[in-house]
What we know:
Elements: H1 6-11, H2 20-25, E1 35-47, H3 55-61, E2 72-79, E3 87-93, E4 101-109, E5 116-120, E6 125-134, E7 137-149, E8 152-156, H4 159-162, E9 164-171, E10 178-187, E11 191-202
Antiparallel strand pairs: 1-2, 1-11, 2-3, 3-4, 4-5, 5-6, 6-7, 7-8, 7-9, 9-10, 10-11
Amino acid sequence: MTMQPVFQQALGPAWDRLGGVIRRHYAMRPFSDDHVCVRGTMSEVWHAPWAALLMPFGRLFGALVPHQGKDVPIEVHYRCRPGNAMLHWDRIFSFPGRPPFHFRSHMEHDAARGSEVIEYVRFGIGMRLAVSAEEGALVFRDLGYVWRVAGLRIPLPLGLFLGTAYVEERPDPADADRFTMKMLLRHRWLGDVFRYSGRFSLGARTGSQ
């Protein structure tokens, strides 16, 4: 049983190439009650007009943000739990005039899969992600979708509809306690499907020492 943070497990020695704010952000230990909250503003939350057709499925699986806006307040809670090695996320978007929208998921790392993690939403639907450290930034690149059922990971061709994801979290050179992030879901033929980007402030980690 390892107590290394999930992304440190995935990156190995490359973990030390991440910016300090990114390492502190993800320094939560598996099998603990560690918790970190970041707060910020999404300068843009956007989806293509036709992507509205996907929203009922997104709501079912808890995987897509159904609203659009600019300068959207957001806070993200990252938690570990004593009973497992997963990293749990709760992204809370506060769109004006709407109830807070929660986008929940969890990430898992399998030592046999090297630098790959899988982010799962409801019903065992997951996105395989290659993790890398690039110029201080933590970068995720989409490797395809899976459905975990009965202990198996079954490939799903969801990329044909959703496109390919790219995510990065990058240190803010002007402030050691801030970072920027962006997510882009781009289809080979249809162009951008979803995107959002923002700037965050890092809070203190809590949990038993």
